[in-house]
Amino acid sequence: METLVAKDLTLGYGEEVIIDDLNITVPKGEITVFIGGNGCGKSTLLRSLARLLKPKDGGIVLNGENIAKMPTKDVAKQLSILPQSPISPEGLTVEDLVKQGRHPYKTLFKKWSLEDEKAVQEALTSTNMNDLKERTVDSLSGGQRQRAWIAMTLAQETDTILLDEPTTYLDMTHQIDILDLLFELNERKKSTIVMVLHDLNLACRYAHHIVAIKDKKIYAQGKPEEIISCNLVHDVFQMKCDVTYDPMFGTPMCIPHGRGRCLIKQAVAESYQGRVRAQ
User: Fold this and answer.
1) How far apart are CA 131 and CA 124, in angstroms?
2) Domain spans in the chain, listed from the N-terminal domain onward
3) Quick one: how far is CA 156 from the chain centroid?
4) What is the gyration radius of the CA atoms in the chain, in angstroms?
5) Which residues does the chain have with pLDDT short of 70?
6) Where is the ABC transporter domain (predicted)?
7) Confidence (pTM)
8) Which residues, at least 6 apart from 24, have a Cβ–Cβ distance to it below 8 Å?
9) What is the rounded distance in angstroms from the CA atom of residue 117 to the CA atom of residue 102?
10) For the chain, does the N or the C end have fewer beta carbons within 10 angstroms?
11) 69: helix, coil or strand?
12) Cα gap 190→39, rounded to integer Å
């Protein structure tokens, strides 16, 4: 089953090509995560899927239609996007922000309706933001602010949601909080969710489908347990690692090599120095 399909897609800015002749199918009703090194084109690809960036070549199909030929409001009723680090007008309340998600349903003759109110209230409830709806967005913590923006996308009532690095700048607790929220949304409503994430282990834990991007193309795609390997991490991120399995979830877990403090090495060194002194 398909939601978004990119065919022979080439993207870039000016003369620079970021994505070259790429083909991808986003599975319907699943969580897809884009991974790759900095500057590889993850966010560029996501923006193009949302029709925020016009392709140099190729095209994108949304639910069987060429997205470039669809009216803007029709696209906004089927697909919503949360960009990285969105900014709201100063003094805007959470509730007013969430209400903006209903904009695609407004017309010259259609006023605010009970249907709109229901969608907003459901979005606030789903994100546990009801108690904060009268607070201004700029007064919230990072995690609360991200929940407010996600509530706005939920109020838009689209089957497909795109999120560009939704956990950026959040501490570990709030990262898990946001990803759990999106996971529950997928479980409850079978929403198609596409995210850009930097944390490979969290990507493996939450994604049904992972797309690894390198050298302007797709390096590999599939279930995390099928594609994540030491070779992939080395080739895509230029990093040596071990790949084992998360003991809680059974998903792949990457343990990067590096020069951090190693307790085992330290214990061996101390034991050796003790033996030398004893001699």
Assistant:
1) 9
2) 2-278
3) 17
4) 22
5) 1-2, 262-279
6) 4-240
7) 0.90
8) 4, 5, 6, 9, 45, 211, 218, 221
9) 9
10) C
11) helix
12) 31
